[in-house]
Amino acid sequence: MCAIVDSGAWNGMGEKKAAFLDGVAAKNPARRFGATEDIVEAALFVLTNRFTTGTVLHVDGGGRFA
Predict the structure, then answer these.
(1) Which of 9, 33, 59, 66 stands 20 to 30 A from 40 (CA)?
(2) How far apart are CA 36 and CA 10, in angstroms?
């Protein structure tokens, strides 16, 4: 399962969007879908932490393990 972020990209789904995101949240170990704030926080961490180098940062609520 990949990370799904409610960034507005899913708005074209209309009434199906809520059911889709609820299904994503139910399968994700974090029990929610991502928010744009999650991506921003991760980017700020990487940009401000001087000891983080050569890291792949998975911002997916544990979705890789689902």
Answers:
(1) 66
(2) 13
